[in-house]
Design brief:
Blueprint: E1 7-11, H1 24-36, E2 40-46, H2 49-53, E3 65-69, H3 75-83, E4 89-93, H4 100-106, E5 116-121, H5 124-133, E6 148-151, H6 155-164, E7 170-172, E8 195-198, H7 203-219, E9 225-228, E10 241-245, H8 252-258, E11 262-264, H9 268-273, H10 279-286, E12 291-294, E13 310-312, H11 315-324, H12 327-344, H13 347-357
Parallel strand pairs: 1-2, 1-4, 2-3, 4-5, 5-6, 6-7, 8-9, 8-11, 9-10, 11-12, 12-13
Helix pairs in contact: 1-13, 7-11, 10-12
Length: 372
């Protein structure tokens, strides 16, 4: 293993397009931070036509080599796997979008005395509930064969559940912020509102959006609500909810800086397991936003309720918070949240955690921990 940095082969959904790809900002923040620490990253992604038409990074980033393979068959993917054979770490992320089950198994063939293979689960609660409900799930027999499982969240409940399924090691690597990307900016009249919610229309999110966001709008007809993200165009909503469509990542800071308050809502599985803060939560905090979030177990490990964010049990409590916020309260909550995430929740810190989990020490050869 190269003592001057790891060679990391990463199979994921997309690094260059955030279109229907909620993991894009997570990938970018973490891989940029690993690159800064001297690691060399090759990111393999399928050339899905719609995703490439909607890419928001027209040029590949300088912190990773991006290799695209055809999405129609596995021939190009086989070449990528052969190319990845000499990596120190091979990562297979969940939700690549094509040939996922096939790739889950094939990457394990790259394991050797010098190559670790990691499964990175971006939707661990969903994966775990799926396996628990289906004893024939093909991923069940693969879990113990990975050197380790990384997850985007879930805390002890996810760690213990993965261990019950035979995982050798499970390490939550939470979302975070990149201070050079997520920061306060001045308002833009396009996004002026009392409360904004930004996320794509996922099936396991829509019911909670109804309960927390649309219900609050119903209760406050004189307040202005803003909805952003893919897929909401045909969704019935109160007349005081304005839909602005998909918002490219380059405008996320502007959106959050223009709203009086920002709402974060967990997807169903994340809320059930708890300990699963979304990337949007940290990014809004880094932008200095006055942050409201739905209630989920473990929030206090990331932000202090009442001082760094407001926590609501339902749409009524969201409405009460929007109604009662003062200018001083908006400012103080936003500043406190920003201080907290810059102190404890940056991708630079997460990158160190990843190194430690992989057994890598800068300036020394990493310890190979897998049992072949």
């Amino acid at each position: 293993m190269n003592s001057h940095g790891l060679r990391i082969a990463f199979f994921g959904a997309s690094l260059v397009s955030a279109w229907w790809n909620g993991a894009a900002m997570y990938y970018r923040g973490l891989l940029r931070a690993l690159h800064v620490r001297g690691h060399r990253i090759t990111f393999y992604e399928p050339a899905l036509p719609e995703r490439q038409r909607h890419r928001d990074l027209p040029v590949a980033p300088d912190y990773a080599t991006v290799v695209m393979y055809p999405a129609e068959d596995t021939e190009g993917l086989e070449r990528c796997l052969e190319d990845a054979r000499n990596a120190d770490v091979v990562v297979k992320a969940s939700g690549v979008g094509v040939f996922d089950e096939w790739l889950n198994a094939r990457v394990l063939e790259l394991k050797s005395g010098s190559t670790q293979v990691v499964y990175w689960d971006l939707d661990a609660p969903i994966t775990l509930e799926r396996m628990a409900g289906n004893p024939e799930d093909p991923f069940l027999e693969l879990v113990p064969r990975y050197d380790r499982i990384f997850t985007q969240g879930g805390g002890d409940p996810v760690v213990l559940a993965y261990r019950d399924f035979g995982a050798r090691e499970c390490v939550p690597v939470y979302s975070a912020v990149d201070p050079s990307v997520h920061r306060p900016v001045g308002p833009d009249p396009r996004f002026s509102c009392d409360l904004v919610f930004l996320d794509d229309r996922w099936p396991d999110l829509e019911r909670r959006v109804e309960s927390y966001f649309l219900r609050a709008a119903d209760l406050l007809p004189d307040k202005r609500f803003l909805l952003g993200g893919e897929g909401w165009g045909d969704r019935q909503r109160p007349s005081n909810v304005r839909y602005v469509g998909p918002v490219p990542p380059r405008e996320h800071n502007i959106l959050r800086g223009s709203a009086r308050s920002v709402l974060d809502i967990s997807r169903d599985g994340m809320a059930r397991f708890g300990f699963s803060p979304s990337p949007h939560l940290f990014e809004a905090a880094a932008a200095g936003s006055c942050l409201l979030t739905d209630a989920w177990e473990g929030i206090e490990l990331f932000l202090e309720p009442g001082r760094e964010c407001l926590v609501a049990q339902d749409g009524l409590e969201v409405a009460e918070a929007v109604l009662c916020l003062t200018d001083d309260g908006v400012r103080d909550l936003g500043q406190a949240a920003r201080r907290r995430v810059l102190s404890e929740h940056t991708y630079a810190q997460r990158a160190v955690q990843v190194e430690q989990a992989l057994g890598y020490r800068p300036g020394a050869r990493a310890v190979r921990e897998s049992v072949l």
